[in-house]
Batch of 2 targets.
Target 1
Amino acid sequence: MTAMVKHFLNLDVISKNDLRSIINTAKDLKNGTASVDKPLAGKALAMIFEKPSTRTRVSFEVGMKQLGGDVVILNSSESQIGRGETIADTAQVLSRYVDCIMMRTYGHEKISEMAKFSTVPVINGLTNSSHPCQLLADVMTFEEHAGPIRGKTIAWSGDGNNMASSWIHAAVKFDFNLRIACPKEQAPHSELFEWANKNNGSVKLFNEPAEAVKNADCVVTDTWTSMGNDEADPHNHLAPFRVDKALMDHASVNAVFMHCLPAHRGEEVTSDVIDGPQSIVWDEAENRLHTQKAILLWCLT
Ligand code: CP
Ligand code: NVA
């Protein structure tokens, strides 16, 4: 039904070339060299939020408008989705009004269902298992500060959540080494490591954060309590994985610190790290805008 539609559902199902070209477009948009003047004039994006958002919502809305397009926002509690209208029906209806659908939801199967029944591109704006839009901003930001990511070493210390899973996809697609330190109960799904291995990725799991971080070019973490995950760290296993100055000192002297935000200072990261000289989190947040625009252009032109 939707064979020719370019959905942005997950990094593992998009080619390396396409992902790299989206980042290149984002860089051109940021430095003003892209030859685009309202290329999405007359187009509309619907954004469905079943979870809260600040960055994703604002960057998509501002980005779409900067490209000449328009946006409609549907919070699930204020739309018929919240009253049980099916994803399949919603997809077919929205496809008659808008040119693209961005959805932030719980299970990945909901995004897949939306894409199955939509005749316009569907963008994954975060699910319980992935956050692909964020990773494009993250790779772009790392490269602005530290040069090509290919062959570099990124260390994750914290919960093995949706962001950790998308970092695994990114490691394979952008050819960097990824070390993940997390409690074994909270590790990303073993299928992701198997997928990375099968695709010649360099992704390793560690129990000791200091080992994972040793000489790394980047240290990254995320909240210990993801949206919709009320059972986060019930046994208080995450404390040793907090990114503090002592942990950062194991990394390369030029290492950067990244976090998709929102952050919880004193939990997954200390204030001296996130507000310190190695932190590039504000550029990372800004780059959501440029990569969002590049994703919209990839889907719609
Ligand atoms: N990083 C990120 O996706 O932030 P929001 O939840 O604010 O959209
Ligand atoms: N892991 C976090 C990311 C927020 C952008 C969450 O899912 O809540």
Note: The beta strands are 44-49, 70-75, 100-104, 122-124, 153-157, 177-181, 202-206, 218-221, 256-259.
Target 2
Amino acid sequence: MTPQDTPVALGSDHAGVALKATLRAALEEAGHPTFDMGTNGPESVDYPDFADAVANSLLDGTARFGVLVCGTGIGISIAANRHAGIRCALVHDATTARLSREHNDANVLALGARVIGPEVALDALRAFLNTPFGGGRHERRVRKLTPEWSLR
Ligand code: RB5
């Protein structure tokens, strides 16, 4: 699958605006269509609203992957994972990003802007996008997470 065939939806709260912009620029540079669901300013907002917007853009087929950023990545990943079919992985480095795809077929990457720097975040994003799901024993386990959701 080429970057052009892999649209990515992004969302953040106020704590993640700058890192989201960095990640969005990298995605666009690589050729991914992007859908920025906000927020885009410093005003304090509620992270579940942006997690919901990104989750819905995957569930309605607009985007293939999602990227979420808040201060720690915790709140926004919890919110995303309340949607059946969303497998949001809060990661802190390229290794956990890679394994979230290989083992968990994660479809949303969550990052903490107050926890990791932009270079680590960019490495994690690249690892996430470049790693296929491993299938096999992992598929059996992932199917148990959301039986009604077909893997793709
Ligand atoms: C906002 O201050 C902060 O609580 C939020 O960005 C996030 O870290 C929550 O999990």
Note: The chain has a mean pLDDT of 96.
